[in-house]
């Protein structure tokens, strides 16, 4: 069963990713899941093959590929039963440095990220009290001479323990001193190797999936002023610029998950025989899988349109938001159908279904919830009054 487009321009990339992923079967991921360990070997393999440098321009040692190629990489990782969450942030965080970083920052960090010498996989934005209300964040960065002093806390900063660099959003001007609440926020590159236990502390959070999530605390942490990305006070806009890329890449991962679930369910439904016939011959088994397939294809079409617009230099806010929401729902529906098809075996660890089921559920909540996507569509696409 081939769920890929015969005219896919990234078919060769997908084929190579599939070969790489074959070296990391379900057993590898199950062992990591037991101990909530980071997939160091998998990330290293992707790095050495150049895939995590896909979006870095060739002049800095990367491949200089479009976002659609990065999406193909992550989709195929998920479709092969692996977990791209360990490294996907490096792809979408990259855009902020590429678009708004200084020449010095690009020359200093990008070649090392491309080679794997440095990992940029931590994104410090969400806080316990503000959640997705980013403009209400309380972490502050105060300028003192040639450095900033950072105080505050972040939560759900995934991979902080396994990343060398963090892209951090902090308030540099108090909220009551700016004309708009989106002003006064600034973005920084934090070299966590230099400040760990020297103003920076990290506390892991155990969750229902192996996502390496953390709380991060800043206590008079010093960041060189030269690590400010772009202009002071414009960080919120810089972060927003990368949101479309983030949502499209996450959507691609969900499409990959959906394809994995559908393929698994179809194969089992054809092979499993009860009462003298394959269970897939029964409409009660067959129809949920077929419906999940239709949902996946519909979401995939929106995501592909969004990627095409992004690669053309446009801002595909509508497609990125709809694609992320629909793809997350499609992967969940496919997972549900897959578990129902397998019955009790769907809950057995050795089939990997329960692991993937837990992992894909996250994306209806993160990196943005379904309700906020609906709010965006209601206000910015349909022109209705702001709901919050």
Would you kindly provide a written description of the structure presented here, covering whatever features stand out?
The chain has 388 residues and is an alpha+beta fold. 48% of the residues lie in helices and 14% in strands. The chain is built from twelve helices and ten strands. The strands form three sheets. The chain has a four-stranded mixed β-sheet with strand order 1-4-5-8. A four-stranded antiparallel β-sheet has the order 2-3-7-6, with no helix packed on it. The mean pLDDT is 95. InterPro entries: Acyl-CoA_DH_CS, Acyl-CoA_Oxase/DH_mid-dom, Acyl-CoA_Oxase/DH_mid-dom_sf, AcylCo_DH-like_C, AcylCo_DH/oxidase_C, AcylCoA_DH/ox_N, AcylCoA_DH/ox_N_sf, AcylCoA_DH/oxidase_NM_dom_sf. Its cofactor is FAD. It comes from Teichococcus globiformis.
What Rg is obtained from the alpha carbons, in whole angstroms? 21 Å
Topology, number of strands: 10
Structural class: alpha+beta
Strand order of the largest sheet: 1-4-5-8
- Main β sheet profile: 4 strands, mixed
Span between termini = 45 Å
Unreliably modeled segments: none
Mean pLDDT reading? 95
Report strand %. Answer: 5-15%
Order of helices and strands: HHHHHHEEEEEHEEEHEEHHHH
Oligomer class: single chain
Keywords: FAD, Flavoprotein, Oxidoreductase
Domain Acyl-CoA dehydrogenase/oxidase N-terminal: 9-117
Domain Acyl-CoA oxidase/dehydrogenase middle: 122-221
GO molecular function, one term: oxidoreductase activity
Q: Which key phrases capture this entry?
A:
388 residues; alpha+beta; 4-stranded mixed β-sheet; 4-stranded antiparallel β-sheet; globular; AcylCoA_DH/ox_N_sf
């Amino acid at each position: 069963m081939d769920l890929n487009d015969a005219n896919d321009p990234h078919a060769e990339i997908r084929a190579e990713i599939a070969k790489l992923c074959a070296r990391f079967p379900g057993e590898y991921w199950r062992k990591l899941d037991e101990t909530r360990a980071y997939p160091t070997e998998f990330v290293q393999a992707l790095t050495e093959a150049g895939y995590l440098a896909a979006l870095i321009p060739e002049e800095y040692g990367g491949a200089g590929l479009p976002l659609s190629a990065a999406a193909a990489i992550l989709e195929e990782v998920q479709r092969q039963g692996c977990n791209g969450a360990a490294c996907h942030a490096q792809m979408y965080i990259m855009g902020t440095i590429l678009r708004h970083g200084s020449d010095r920052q690009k020359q200093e960090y990008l070649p090392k990220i491309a080679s794997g010498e440095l990992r940029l996989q931590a994104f410090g934005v969400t806080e316990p009290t503000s959640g997705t209300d980013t403009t209400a964040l309380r972490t502050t960065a105060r300028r003192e001479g040639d450095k900033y002093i950072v105080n505050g806390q972040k939560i759900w900063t995934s991979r902080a323990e396994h990343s060398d660099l963090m892209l951090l959003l902090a308030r540099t001007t108090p909220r009551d001193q700016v004309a708009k609440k989106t002003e006064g926020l600034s973005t920084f590159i934090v070299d966590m190797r230099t400040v760990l236990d020297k103003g920076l502390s990290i506390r892991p959070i155990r969750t229902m999936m192996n996502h390496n999530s953390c709380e991060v605390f800043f206590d008079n942490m010093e960041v060189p002023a030269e690590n400010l990305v772009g202009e002071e006070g414009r960080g919120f806009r810089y972060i927003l610029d990368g949101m479309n890329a983030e949502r499209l890449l996450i959507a691609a991962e969900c499409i990959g998950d959906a394809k994995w679930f559908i393929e698994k369910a179809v194969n089992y439904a054809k092979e499993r025989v009860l009462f003298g016939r394959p269970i897939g011959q029964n409409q009660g088994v067959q129809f949920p899988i077929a419906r999940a397939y239709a949902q996946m294809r519909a979401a995939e079409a929106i995501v592909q349109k969004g990627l095409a617009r992004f690669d053309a230099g446009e801002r595909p806010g509508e497609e990125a938001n709809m694609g992320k929401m629909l793809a997350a729902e499609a992967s969940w529906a496919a997972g549900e159908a897959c578990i129902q098809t397998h019955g009790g075996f769907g809950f057995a660890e050795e089939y990997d279904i329960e692991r993937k089921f837990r992992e894909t559920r996250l994306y209806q909540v993160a990196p943005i919830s379904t309700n906020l996507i609906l709010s965006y569509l209601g206000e910015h696409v349909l022109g209705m009054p702001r709901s919050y």
